[in-house]
Design a protein that fits this description.
Elements (H helix, E strand, L loop, with lengths): L2 H21 L8 H17 L11 H22 L4 H28 L5 H4 L12 H30 L8 H22 L6 H76 L4 H14 L8 H16 L3 E6 L9 H20 L8 E9 L2 E9 L6 E2 L2 E2 L11 H12 L3 E7 L2 E9 L6
Parallel strand pairs: 1-2
Antiparallel strand pairs: 2-3, 3-7, 4-5, 6-7
Helix pairs in contact: 1-2, 1-3, 1-4, 1-6, 2-3, 3-4, 3-7, 4-6, 4-7, 4-8, 6-8, 7-8, 8-9, 8-10, 8-11, 8-12, 10-11, 11-12
Amino acid sequence: MTSLWWYKLLFVTELIIAETAITFHFERRKLWGLRLPAALAVIYLFVIFFPLPEGVAYSGWYLSLMFMLIFAVTLCGVLFVFRITVANGVFCAITAYTIQHLSFEIYTIFSTAFSFGSRDDMYGNAMVDLSSFNSGLAVVILVYVDIFILIGGITYYLMRKYLRDNTKIKVNGTMLLYSALILLVDVVLNAFVVYIPEKHNAYEIIIGIFNVLCCLLVLYIQMSVVKRRDIEKEMEDMKATISQMHKQYVLRKESIDVINRKCHDLRYQMSRFAATGRVDMEEFRKIEEAINIYDSTVKTGNEVLDVILTEKTLLCRENGVQLTCMADCSRFNFIHEGELYALFGNLIDNAVEAALSIDEVEKRYIGLNIHAVGDIISIVIENYYNGEIELSGGLPKTSKGDENYHGYGLKSVDMIVKQYAGNLTITANDGIFRVTILIPIPKSTA
């Protein structure tokens, strides 16, 4: 049996191991316990009986065809065992093949640079005598296996979040096609390079480095696909949250209107009783103060902000937080009600959360300043905070152990600001957390 005969078994084994690691968390089909051994049997039988005529000098086209057919058979095995779409199956198989090929190319660079083993030996048609196993061959095998485990482990680590939650993998057909074409060209090129006569070591190393770069590009594209889906899902969640907050705004506006009417009626009735002298004036003032707390509608020139600030002012009073606001919001009419409610609701809620964590009562303070400068709306909100705040990508990193969900409100704020071509800046210095937002007023509404 030739070295190529043994290598094709090694190749398909690496491919199956990589595909298994990538698809492990996907939903399995019914009777997968029977499907898996059946798929493995068919794959290995195909590889074992794939024709390699003895004494024939193989060509690059022959090797390329063999590897592509083996790849196709393993892909069919993935689709047979796991309940996934063809696109997701191709995505996983391409990623697995890239891991295998990248490992092989790195091994080639090492073996050429340090003069042990060779891919030419693996692709050759010379007969292999297993009885001549020695320490040199053991070193070659050990290096090859270690490189494969290292590359596979690094790739899995980088993609683990998406592979464990495979619902985040939404394959983009164009990106997948690019990955497939780059990998195909790389594999075919590698197969042809093997049979170039009188190659210099430097030449092989250069080709190996080029192939490694191609594999890294494929992995980068594959990771971009799943990360893009993650971003899309986050955008969908934030849009759903904004839609829900708009419904909350409508309900709370109605509630505040009802409370204000009741407070007005109650104050009128109290005044009548006070005029007759049937109510103790001291008690009357206490009751009136209590009524004033709930009859404290803020007037900013924008109905949505009036509701938000009225609601948040009551929240702050109940929690011993001082909220001061200087606001002229008459030019906010171009921002959708739900987005405006989400924008200021999240800003103030984050500030209240930070203020409540401070022991010093005098530092439980939130300052909000809203005004227009020319055709730019400026929003500045600041508050004290405890501990350290680390910014990443312009937004604060979590201190709660879950970087995906804490700070979700500020991600929503950032999305809304960018939607209106605005700019958001966050600073955390000397114990003061400050959010500055600048939003241009469209000319059609200016």
